[in-house]
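Troubleshooting log. The previous structure file for this entry was overwritten by mistake, so regenerating from the original sequence record. Sequence copied from the archived sheet and checked twice against the printout by T.R.
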Amino acid sequence: MIYHGVRRTPSSSIYRLGLALFDLQQPEKCLIRGNSWIFAPEADYERHGDVQDVVFPCGYTVASDGDTINLYYGAADSSIALAYGSIRNLLTWLDANGHSEQAHDRRLRK
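Regenerated output below.
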């Protein structure tokens, strides 16, 4: 799942994209979630517009190769843009930069 979240700063808020993987059989169960953001406002059209420093996912398609993801996203509440990447690379990044929600819950209970 590609989702957006907000970080509040003293001067404004920044909307960025995160990545999480859920169980296919139990979709309420998060298997792993990224420790950091995978996509943040950088380009001028993402940083300046109706609302500054905003990117948020609007939808995606997967190419016929089964690996290329085309991510349509909103930018600064003023435009729609397209980013593309590799699903395999996203999963590899998540393995290297993610944490298990279950492990996190166990640490909180201790």
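The longest strand covers residues 13-22. Archived copy saved in two places this time.
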